[in-house]
Specification:
Elements lengths: L3 E4 L3 H16 L4 E3 L6 E5 L3 H11 L9 E2 L6 H4 E2 L3 H10 L4 E7 L13 E5 L4 H10 L2 E5 L11 H8 L5 E4 L10 E4 L6 E4 L5 H8 L11
Parallel strand pairs: 1-9, 2-9, 4-7, 6-10
Antiparallel strand pairs: 2-3, 3-8, 4-8, 5-6, 6-7, 10-11
Length: 220
């Protein structure tokens, strides 16, 4: 596969980059895109073969399904069901941003993200380029742009070096502003639980929840 790289320095370059990424996604190809945390490798969440290709490109198995990025908080209810109040409070406070929430998925969804056990991990990134792409493609399965076991790419050079053989388009928007992965919170139970520490701390999350009489538990 030929990997094309697009920069986003001017409005015209940005439009070309977004359009190339959208067309690649629609063809079932993989794309590297910038986010507010680290660079991601993306596939159409509803394209089973594309998602399988994403996992293969990273060297991952089905036991590590990718999260789904969305362009709007309203999309959460299209993908998830039985979303608890504390999860909605966190989403309201930290989306767009480095928070991934795991919820029960809508049973009607026709997709295969891997061995999700009936759940979906959802995030809305705080990055203009990423959201512009998402607004045109709909939900994307997105994992950090790296080979499993390697550090996540924080710029397009690192991502391209690891993944150029697997992706059709690399969107280069410079250095990732965050550089640290999102915090993942399991919201499938009565009390939320941090599954991965990231850009948001337990203290920041609980600061939102404590006035509501709720708190999260941390990793053991």
């Amino acid at each position: 596969m030929i990997c094309e790289r697009f920069t986003t320095g001017s409005p015209e370059e940005l439009e070309d980059a977004v359009e190339a990424a959208v067309m690649a996604i629609q063809r079932g190809d993989l794309v590297v895109l910038p986010t507010d945390t680290v660079y991601g490798i993306a596939a159409d969440a509803f394209d089973k073969e594309a998602v399988a290709g994403l996992l293969e490109a990273k060297g991952r198995g089905r036991e590590m399904p990718p999260p789904v990025l969305v362009s709007s908080t309203a999309t959460l209810d299209a993908l998830a069901t039985r979303v608890p109040g504390y999860a909605r409070a966190l989403v309201e406070a930290f989306w767009p941003g480095p928070l991934t929430v795991i919820c029960h998925q809508q049973q009607s969804l026709q997709w295969d993200l891997g061995d999700t056990r009936g759940t979906v991990a959802v995030r809305m990134p705080d990055h203009e380029v990423a959201r512009e792409i998402l607004e045109r493609t709909g939900p994307l399965a997105v994992s950090s742009a790296n080979l499993t076991g390697m550090p996540a790419a924080t710029d397009a050079d690192q991502a391209e070096e690891m993944l150029a053989a697997s992706v059709a388009v690399v969107v280069d928007a410079g250095e990732s502003p965050g550089g640290e992965a999102s915090t993942i919170v399991d919201c499938t139970g009565d009390q939320g639980r941090i599954l991965r520490r990231g850009a948001l701390s337990l203290e920041q999350l609980n600061e939102v929840l404590e006035p509501l009489g709720a708190t999260l538990t941390d990793l053991d």
